[in-house]
Every structure is written in C-alpha cells, then in structure tokens.
Specification:
This is Thioredoxin. The chain has 139 residues and is an alpha/beta fold. The chain has 5 helices and 5 strands, in the order H-E-H-E-H-E-H-E-E-H.
C-alpha cells in the first residue's frame, strides 16, 4: 500500500467520524472510562473539553508529513487501547495556533495533561515502554 493510499484511508475514516459527530452519534468507545482509540482534536475548545473530561490525557501534536510522527502513531494507538489515559491527536498544520500555545516547535511533541493541567512534555520519537511509564505515574 502506498503512502497516498494510506493517507486517503485515514482521510476517509476521519470524514466518517466527523459525519457521525455532526449527526449527533457518539462513537462506540465513548462509554465510561478512557477511549480506546485516539481522539482527533480540531481546535482549542475540543482540546479543553477532552482535558476536562478525562483525568489523564496524552496529546500527540503531529504532522502528516513527519516521518517520526508516522512511526509513533502505532505506539500512541497502543497507549490509547491499553492504558487508562485518553489519547488525543492534534494536527499542527491544521491547528497552528493551538500548537504555538503549547510551545510546539518540533514534531512529534507529546504533552501529558493530569487533572486538567499540562504535566509533562516530550519531543521526538518515544518508546512504548517510556510512554507507559509516564502515563503510569499519573494514572
């Protein structure tokens, strides 16, 4: 599968999520607890709501063109599925002001929120074990 095909599949999946959200349907994983898949964030208000709704949120500031971001994506998905932290993804190209607000100068940048406040920030590719340990400190 080519990168273009992969990006198109991601775009289609996101478009379906947005249509469901606009229609008022809740995703299947939005029951109690943390979601088992990363939440796409489209603006400061959505990020604020997500951080307020969950005790621990790991936010992945990424760019589609970023190689290390693509390598980190399966790790972030595993953290979402297997830990008590909610995971959110912010596309820095679509949310430049939000990225600037959190001091994102390079991607990937991960910001961990605990009890509504930024608690940790990591820049660059991270290992799954390191992220599990970081999340574990706050959950």
């Amino acid at each position: 599968m080519t990168d273009d095909q992969t990006l198109e599949e991601i775009r289609q999946r996101k478009l379906e999520e947005l249509r469901d959200r606009a229609a008022g349907e809740e995703p299947a994983d939005s029951t109690q607890g943390s979601p088992t898949e990363p939440i796409s964030i489209h603006g400061a208000a959505e990020l604020d709501d997500t951080v307020a709704e969950h005790d621990v949120v790991l936010v992945d500031f990424y760019a589609d063109w970023c190689g290390p971001c693509q390598m980190l994506e399966p790790v972030v998905e595993t953290i979402a599925a297997e830990t008590d932290a909610a995971v959110a993804k912010v596309d820095i190209d679509a949310n430049q002001q939000l990225a600037a607000e959190y001091g994102v100068r390079g991607v990937p940048t991960l910001v961990l929120f605990s009890d509504g406040q930024p608690a940790e920030q990591l820049v660059g590719m991270q290992q799954e074990a390191q992220l599990r340990s970081l999340v574990g400190k706050y959950t």
